[in-house]
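Hey, I'm writing a tutorial for new members on how sequence and structure tokens pair up, and I'd like a real worked example in the thread rather than a made-up one. If someone can provide the structure for the chain below, I'll link this post from the tutorial.
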Amino acid sequence: MLIQRTTITQYLPLLAISLALVSASACTSEIDNKPAAKVEEAGKKAPEPAKEDTKAPAPASVELSLDKATSKVGFIGAKVTADHAGSFTDISGTTKVASGKLESLEVVVQMSSLSIEPADLQGHLMTADFFDVEKYPQAKFSLLEVSEKPGENGATHEMSGNLEMHGKTMKVTFPATLTMSETAVDGKAEFKIDRNLWDISAPGMKNDLIKPEVALSLDLHFVRA
């Protein structure tokens, strides 16, 4: 019996380490590796700088429309025990381009088009605990400013805009990869936000809390109508 007790005692530290590793693995989320957007009070678009009085006319802007067939707006939410990836299938938007630069950009998401598995989770996310789609049927992003700023994962620009969601508007700034011409604009971005800042604050169950961070994934393509 003494030998058995000694053996068990020797293995206790190893058992504790194993349990700790399993616990840490269960808490790992894909959201953790996404860059965090800078979130501030809603902003206003900066005024255009004064242009010199020249004979050359200002370049005409071209309006492009979001290609719904190829564009995607996805998200990842997470509990302590698991990630849940979803998307919105009804999105629309426009952008204006002049001389290869963005003048404006707006994207509108119909919140009732939320798609996620399982079905009971999809239904719960639409209630007043989360998005409350009956009261707040749309979310909208409106560009305030964009600048060239190389970053991680191939980012080429930094974008700032007002994100209106759940009846509240906040300014978000995040890295993006943009390709622009007079006939098309392609943009990709991945970043995370704290849903509590938009008053979406359901905590989840006591033994399986919902993380406040939500990762957004944008893959947007604008083309001439």
